[in-house]
Amino acid sequence: MGVLSTVWQFLKKHKRKFLFTGTAITGTYFALKYARNKLDAYQEQQMAAAFATAQRQTHFDSNQRTCLLTINSLVPTLRDQIMTQLNCEHLTQQLQTKPSNKVHIWSELKLMAFTRTFASIYSTCILVLTLRVQLNIVGGCIYSRHENENDSQLTEEECAVQQQYLEAIRYFMENGVLKLCDLIQHSVEKEVLNISLKQSLTKQSLKMLIDRIRINIEKLPNDVKKTPFLAFICESTPFVHHGSHQSSESSNGRMSFSLSNLMQETYDIISSEDYHYVLQSMINHGFDYLLTHISRVFASATPRIPASLETRASSENMALPSLPLAKLIPPFVGSVHNVCSDTTTEYLQQLISLAVANDYAFEIYKSFCCSSNAVNTITMS
Fold first, then answer.
1. Smallest Cα–Cα separation from 336: which of 68, 107, 79?
2. Helices 15-85 and 346-353: crossing angle, nearest 10°?
3. Backbone angles phi, psi at 323, to 5 degrees
4. For residues 62-80, average pLDDT
5. What whole-number distance in Å separates Cα of residue 303 and Cα of residue 344?
6. What are phi and psi of 241, to 5 degrees?
7. How far is CA 376 from the centre of its chain?
8. What is the DSSP letter of 87?
9. Quick one: average pLDDT of 259-280?
10. Distance CA 88, CA 113 (A)
């Protein structure tokens, strides 16, 4: 009994300490448990976000492969359209018959060769970028609905709307490219018509000539603040009027593709400064590729200097290699096949792989993954 009394007295004497210690231990336990729960929730949230990001990236990469296949299927048609409009082969066949008016035919071939080369570069850049815009809008919308409704399967009606939307590029393929050829031909005539076939051109003077032609093609009237090629891509606002009667909801109440909304979203994008910036970067790359290709012709025309004369030639600052304009016409005539081919050319592969174009495509895709009306949030990163 004495022991119990002693223990009780001890507990009574130090009860505040025990209460404080017990409260501290209990509080610490619950605090640690709360922190652990929060940490687990955070880790789960991070893992879910990482999985969603990886899933979205996988879907985006798959969408880009679809873009590549679609581009490859349309480029030959685009090439045939350009070659029909600008038939250099007909003129070269006439020259082989040694006609009496060969000087006139050579002059026509000179203009047509430049026009066709410029048309192939401008048209492929417009086609590639516009298709990537369309396909990434559709891809983003499909992924967004899969995330929100856990269903990415399109109804028959939605498939028809999607097909009709993607076919809007036909306006450029069938009409816009012909108008573009006319504009380019006018600009080429302004700069090239009075250049003699015998006039020698260096790589530098050829680049300056190309730059002058580009300035004429790409200049805008003072009252126009949109991309200079907008009129060739679409007929009117918004992006060719198609299917304004399409509803935004399907019969079962799910969100559906609205053709009129897709057209308006696309028009807003292709008329933006960002689109123009990316398109300009692609066109610059296209002409860099052209100059690299033409440089091989200059390289083959450069005389080989004997080793014993290299020092002397260097000290005398030998003139840059030059070629008469007539010698440059054949590679210009054939450049359409290097740019537009039945298979993926080096040029097209480089064009599709440009970092600025890929970043822009991902920004569009990501914006439409978040919201089907998020076009205003698309900016260059």
1. 79
2. 150
3. -135, 145
4. 89
5. 35
6. -70, 110
7. 18
8. -
9. 90
10. 7
Q: Does residue 77 contact residue 301 with C-beta atoms inside 8 Å?
A: no
> Per mean pLDDT, which range of 213-227, 256-270, 336-350 is the poorest?
213-227
Which tokens hold the place of 144?
């967004």
- pLDDT for residue 161 is more than 50: yes
Backbone angles phi, psi at 14, to 5 degrees: -110, 25
Cα 228 to Cα 51: distance, rounded to the nearest angstrom = 41
Owner of token pair 């071939």: 109
Q: Which of 91, 167, 86, 166 is nearest to 122 (CA)?
A: 86
**DSSP state, 376?**
G
DSSP classification of residue 311: H
Report pLDDT for 44.
63
Q: Answer yes or no: are the C-beta atoms of 334 and 341 closer than 8 Å.
A: no
Q: Are 149 and 158 in contact (CB under 8 A)?
A: no
